[in-house]
Amino acid sequence: MTATRSPQNPPRLLLRGRNSAEQRFVLIAVAPLVLYLAFWTLLPVVWGFLLAFFDYSARRTGGIFLGLGGSNPFVGLEHFRAMLNFSPDAPLQVRQFQHGVKITLIFAFLVVPLNLAITLPLAVMIESVHKRLRSLFRTIFFLPVLAPSVGVAIMWGYVFHPQRGLLNGILRLITGEMHGTNWIGDPNLVLGGVPVALLAVVTAYLWQDLGYNMVIFIAALQGIPQTIKDAARIDGANWWQMFSRIILPLLSPTILLAAILTMISAFQVFDIIQVMTDGGPNGQTEVLLLSIYNYAFRYQQMGWAASVSLVLFLIVFSISLVQTRLLRSEWEY
Amino acid sequence: MKSKQLIVLSVLLMLALMASACSPTAQPTQPPAEVNAPAATEIVQPEPEQPASAEKVVIRFWSHQNDAFNAGYQALADAYSAENPTVEIQFETFDYDTYIQTLQTALPAGTEADILQMFGSWVCSYAEGGSLAEAPTSLISLEDARSALFAAPVGGYICNDKLYGIPQEFNIEYGAVLVNPRLAEEAGIALDGWESWDEFITDSKKLVQMEDTVMTRAGFNFTGSDGIAAMFHSLILQNGGQYLVDGTYKVNTPEGVKSLELMKRLVDEGLVDPLLFNDEQNWVGDSFFEETSAIGLVGPWVVPEFGVDYPEIAETAIYMRLPTVGETPKFAAASGWGLTVSKNSKVQQAAWDFIRYVTLDEKNAVQFNLASGTLPALVENASGANGEQLVSEFSYFKPWLEILQYGEYEGQFPDRDFVWYEVTYPRVLNFLQGNATLEETLKTVESEVQGSF
Fold this sequence. Notes:
The complex is a heterodimer of chains A (333) and B (453).
Chain A: H1 10-13, H2 20-51, H3 78-83, H4 92-128, H5 131-146, H6 149-159, H7 166-175, E1 190-191, E2 194-195, H8 196-223, H9 226-234, H10 239-267, H11 271-276, H12 288-298, H13 302-326
Helix pairs in contact in A: 2-13, 4-8, 4-10, 5-8, 6-8, 8-10, 10-13, 12-13
Chain B: H1 3-22, E1 27-28, E2 57-64, H2 67-83, E3 87-94, H3 96-109, E4 115-119, H4 120-128, H5 142-148, H6 151-155, E5 158-159, E6 162-163, E7 166-167, E8 176-179, H7 181-186, H8 197-207, E9 209-211, E10 214-221, H9 225-238, E11 244-245, E12 248-249, H10 254-268, H11 284-289, E13 293-296, H12 302-307, H13 311-316, E14 318-321, E15 331-333, E16 337-341, H14 348-360, H15 362-372, H16 384-393, H17 398-403, E17 407-409, H18 416-432, H19 438-451
Parallel strand pairs in B: 2-3, 2-4, 10-13, 15-17
Antiparallel strand pairs in B: 1-3, 4-16, 5-6, 7-16, 8-13, 8-14, 9-10, 11-12
Helix pairs in contact in B: 2-15, 9-10, 9-18, 14-15, 15-16, 18-19
């Protein structure tokens, strides 16, 4: 049987319409990258997927094939079944998982709207200032994106420090009294049902992440044809009408993109939380990824951690899918 | 060159690069010159065991990166190789986090070194997983190991009545406290020891500093994770109880109640505010050296570690024994660093011989403790000339050396870190912060720890 250049033969699609020299070049150029990705991305994904169905710990030798089997037995869907045990007597790791899902969802659903609510007007405002000032503002707001997360977490840790922190220092200046509020360490501090420690982490995360979406929105704003804006002005549209009736609808594809990217990024938050609170106080900031890290690398329950990772992937995938459907709009203008 | 050959070549190149990237990124170790490494002449030389004509034996040795530890190992290896020219010890070191992950991946893959430095509380999980070799009785019998080494450090290396390695140091967190003499003097406290908890509380209270209603300096900071777990379990022992019997964890007992009551009393007396002083904020090590805690519950390892950044405080800091609840100052301890041999090693006999030389010879063992600034695991080295040598080098060792004999191994948990950091610390801290009752706390800790078995 000979290979044909038909649409039913996808690998050949890449090479269709190319002469043999070009085909060779493409193959040679692409092969290392494909191998690299397969080795460093695809294999770990497959391995992680596989582990989710085993009670695997790297401390145990296990069976002959990759340490699977033997003392690292196949447990099928047991990890996933355990995750659905909502009894108060459920094992600690199960309760931590359920708590982690809740905290991660709260974190993500706080971060996404707050981020968009700040970055979009900010981008509009920056675009409305004089050209010379635009790049200055863009740089200022984008700088935190370039800062390492660990540094950001340490800096915000100092801001919220109970005795030497900037926030309590400002409160002291205002009230004239020493304030010892432990913003990120007191489990009793709750605002509107949300732990203050989580809000503090959200603040630090937003501070670092704002610049990224801001740049995306600025690029999108610059892509809106001037003729449309001019036409609206001629029709007597004021600033708010221009923003709400013209700019916002035209930016909806970009908003969707930014929302999805921010949501995915928020679900993967780890370093800033690990350094600022390490999941505390009393587990109030223990997001799923922190729990995955702890169970995989501190407590050696790699199988459990892999199954939680799989669930996290499914959550992110589902929410992204729903977002795409809900915010679907005309993409052309 | 034909395209197929090119593709094959590029594939081979990529595979070779990937394979090289997968190998452990170990660093060949050189002892730093400034570290107090023992001179080869100070070390007792063993009788040569291999004939001169024997083949060269190369022993690979993995450890975590710690200049003081590595200097100690290198000096002993040099001395050993001088007497055993056919034996070469090749050191490879990893930073701490990488080392843990490397062990976890290399042991199942069978690519680990012959000698593996291990922390005692890790040993049984690897031994039971089939990765470590049992120590031969020709090295030392289990009975002899139990009498030659302190119970706490050797306890971590005994799994199902089998010995899987030899500890070199005694890791300890409870029994004595780190005291800032300058702050004590300013508060008018005579540092002549505490006979009772009442005395201790009275003195510690004088060290507390408040600004308005905020505690800016703790009198006694014990609310870090290691401090809470070590104190809770040690007090149970001192009260005459046992928290771990035949694989059953039981703390919801009268002894558990007494232990938590004492810890809560320290908080209620105002020695520390657990909302402001814990692992997340004002951790005991940082806090002591920043002088926001006058007395801290933390092991002696903290002095050399913080001595680099706070030399003045480290030089004057002293340790003082804590009062005891029962008749003897019993305490629970987490074993210590030591040496094990991989089950996959092809040179097990030579590896064990080197371990014997490094760990069981009194003079060599004490040289390692001197070089690494660690407490001895060998009973003989806690007293006599070797003990005096340690105290002359590290004066803050004195109160510790007096109580080592009362230490008990904290016990074999399926995962000690899980018990300490996911259960005991958060639950007890929550109780000390006033967010849970004593009964709830003991019940929760007991059921959650037992659930991990």
